[in-house]
Write a structure and sequence with these properties.
Blueprint lengths: L6 H12 L8 H136 L6
Protein name: DUF4094 domain-containing protein
Keywords: Coiled coil
Organism: Macrostomum lignano
Length: 168
Amino acid sequence: MFQRFTGAAKSGASAAVGGAGASTGGPFDAERAELQVRLAEQERRVERQRKEAAELAGKMAEMRLEQLERWGGEAGRLWRRIEEMRLTCDQAGRLQRESTEWRVRAESLQETLAKESQRWVGERVSLQFASQQLRLVVDQWLDRFQGAVEEISSIKLESEENRPARQD
């Protein structure tokens, strides 16, 4: 360590430090060569890794684009499916409204039918009563007519019996 500060050591140190490009045959030259070899290897390794990173980045970009294209296709299919479902829901809503309208109409018609049925039942009863009354009237007329016919027949018989026989 003391040699460093001595004059002899100074001249050797100045040659190594001052003449970095010059080959003095000292221990630093071998170290420097080894470091330069290592540095060159490291630079090649870094360059190779940069190329690999660039390739990987390109592959990743391609994969992302492919994934985006797949997702885009899926998104398109999903959008069409959503539109189909929206149309189906709209149609279902329309059918539900129509069925409600038909149900209300059917209930109204059932009420009208029940009222008409009651009216016709009443009419039928009324007609049955009128028919029975008519039968009674017709029976009375037939009885009277038969009585009149019998009376006329008996009068006719009496008159023929009481009439003198004609002589021609």
